[in-house]
Amino acid sequence: MITINQAIQQSKFNSEYHKLAVNLFYTTSWLSGQHQHLLKPFGISMQQFNILRILRGQKGNPLSVNCHSVQYDRNGDGRIEKGTDLVLQTLFDEWQDYRKQGGAASCVDCHMPVAKGARAAESALIPLEQDAEAPPRTLRSHRFIAVDYPIDKPTVIAATRAEREALLQRAAELKLDPRTLAISDSRMSFDVSIKNVGAGHNLPGGFAFVRQMWLEVTLLDARGALLAASGQVIQPSDDLCDGAILDESESSVRELLSRCTATNRQLVSFQQMLVEQNRAAPRRGGARAARLRNEHASGRRRLEGSVVQF
Questions:
Q1: What is the C-alpha separation between 211 and 200, in angstroms, rounded?
Q2: For the chain: N or C, fewer Cβ within 10 A?
């Protein structure tokens, strides 16, 4: 085996670190050349070969399973049980249930919607950036659109707002029943229902206790002036004044809420909370103090709102 000095015919280096860096670059280039030589008969690149290896490792599962099925067997019994083990992400399991019930959509269908155009990399230069003109094909957005986004970054919000709204409109149906509208003195009440009609998993989606969706309601007078509101987040740093946190005297996160001095009694919030089973104490007729605000009916995966009163 030859040394790096012999390989590049150079005897002097600025330092041992310089020699090491040159050696690494040379070895990387040599290995890349060997791989390209081995793959040439198959007509694929190193990048394509890496993708094929990843797909083989998935054993038929979508690539997203690694991110959307996060569970930890805390007691090492080989089983995953909610309340005993740490279950942080179940979207893949929910999608499998959806498919068993006859659902046909894949992750790509919703989160990589069809985009305008018929050719990929239309502006890529030939032969510098692509070997030949790409064939016509159905193009999809690679933004991986979802509704979780940083609300403290306006430019990020604006860039994908239209696509996020379209995703929500395909996933859920919101209805206000005018027959339930009732006004008495200074109070108004009405029923709002929210139903999962298109998502291949439960709503809201997301990671553990970050799964959160709420209803924003504003009541205006004839001149457009605001009379009352619920679920509004005025500043990016604001929190929802949810009674599930504010009304729990032993809640460890109450003091972390921003701009919440009183509970928003009209708030309609669907949020899955991370709870430890052994810390949930009975109260009021045996009901558990720790509870999940995210309720999903089995079968049709229906998510219903509740009455909002002012």
A1: 15
A2: N
Q: Give the burial class of 281: count Cβ atoms within 10 A of its Cβ; 0-12 exposed, 13-18 middle, 19 or more buried.
A: exposed
Residue 145's contacts (CB-CB under 8 Å, 6 or more residues apart) are 111, 112, 113, 160, 163, 164, 167
pTM of the model: 0.65
Hey, how many other C-beta atoms are within 10 angstroms of the C-beta on 51?
A: 13
Domain ranges of the chain: 1-60, 171-309
49 CB contacts (<8 Å, ≥6 apart)? 35, 39
Residue range 143-194, pLDDT digits in tens: 788 876 777 778 878 888 888 889 989 999 999 999 999 988 888 888 888 8
pLDDT tens column, 12-38: 888 888 888 888 988 988 888 888 888
**What's the rounded Cα separation, in Å, for the pair 167 and 162?**
9
